[in-house]
Design a protein that fits this description.
By secondary structure, the chain is an alpha/beta fold. It has an eleven-stranded mixed sheet with strand order 3-2-1-4-11-10-5-6-9-7-8, with helices on both faces. The radius of gyration is 20 Å and the shape is globular.
Length: about 350
């Protein structure tokens, strides 16, 4: 690619606050993380979003005249709008002009574009969206997948999710021998529907992962597990519920702590602690979710993402590239299982 710096293709037109917040987060990442940023979209809108006196020679803009709206059917839109910003960004990765791609736009379109342009990793039937949740143990996150890519999952899909999630947890999150769980309605091996029981058996027999059993809903944030697998229907409900609970708790703290004189004094003294609470609970600190299973590093952000989320998503994408997570999955896990 002509550069040793990680290069990230950014869908500048994707998201509720595009392109302004997207550009702001990307420029911060360029400055603080030492990455090269390729802003993909309408050049006029992108340039208008740049801060005054920005040196355009230091900002690479890749033209894409179309964008995919949130209300469009993803697969049809991706096929019809070949010059859409998400397609152009994916093509940059396919052409090895970028190491990773990020979009806060239509998540279905991002997944469809990734599958059509990048394809799947060998041995993977379905990609999965993995997102990081905080747990009650500081500095010990849990990776949950799938959180929305596949509504219905066969047991072998969950088995593959566990393999990919273990690789990501180990090499990007720094977990030694990640503990894997299957989201279920009870701890016993026989709990759940037929698909859950069969998935449990596959996971238990998989020597490439450290499967420790079923994880109930109360276990997700307990810190007992490093990776939890589930189908995308359940995972997406879990994700949005957890985000809502976090926002509710933070709002309650904002409203209740300053009440009365003692509260005002106490909240002032606790301000540094509250900032750390927010950092542990706020989904913006994680920035986005990784689409695991496609032949390229692809991160998907919230449609409501603002500059801090964009920055953190780019940071996570850089870490995935630096730690060669795709190569790890393919060589150490998938190919070993196929040869075995």
């Amino acid at each position: 690619m002509g550069s040793t710096r990680v290069r990230i293709a950014i869908d500048a037109m994707g998201g509720d606050h595009a392109p302004g917040e997207i550009v702001a987060g990307a420029l911060r990442a360029k400055e603080e993380l030492g990455v090269d940023i390729l802003l993909v979209g309408d050049p006029q809108q992108i340039e208008a979003a740049l801060p005054p006196k920005t040196n355009l020679g230091q900002v690479e803009i890749v033209t894409a005249q179309e964008a995919i709206a949130m209300d469009e059917e993803p697969l049809n839109a991706v096929r019809r709008k070949r010059n859409a910003s998400i397609n152009v960004a994916m093509d940059l990765v396919k052409q090895q002009r970028a190491d990773a791609v990020f979009s806060a736009g239509h998540s279905g379109a991002a997944m469809a574009s990734a599958l059509l342009r990048l394809g799947r990793l060998p041995g993977i039937d379905r990609p999965a969206i993995g997102t990081v949740f905080p747990t009650i143990i500081a500095g010990k996150p849990v990776l949950v997948l799938d959180v929305g890519a596949n509504v219905d999952c066969r047991p072998k899909f969950l088995d593959q999710f566990a393999v990919m999630g273990s690789a990501y947890s180990q090499y990007v999150l720094g977990t030694t021998q990640p503990k894997v769980g299957l989201l279920n309605i009870g701890e016993e091996d026989s709990k759940g529907n037929d698909a859950a029981v069969r998935a449990h058996q596959l996971l238990r027999e998989n020597t490439q992962i450290n499967f420790i059993g079923n994880a109930e809903g109360r276990d997700v944030l307990s810190g007992r597990f490093d990776v939890i697998v589930c189908d995308g229907f359940v995972g997406n409900v879990l994700l949005k519920f957890a985000e809502a609970v976090g926002e509710v708790i933070l709002q309650i703290l904002r409203e209740e702590l300053p009440q009365g004189l003692h509260g005002q004094i106490g909240s002032a003294l606790l301000k540094p602690n509250l900032k750390r609470v927010k950092q542990r609970m706020d989904h913006a600190e994680h920035g986005g979710a990784l689409l695991l299973g496609v032949a390229g590093v692809c991160f998907i952000g919230h449609g409501s993402s603002q500059a801090p989320s964009i920055f953190n998503a780019i940071r996570m994408a850089k870490e995935a590239v630096d730690n060669q997570v795709l190569q790890r999955i393919q060589s150490q896990y998938i190919l070993e299982r196929e040869s075995g």
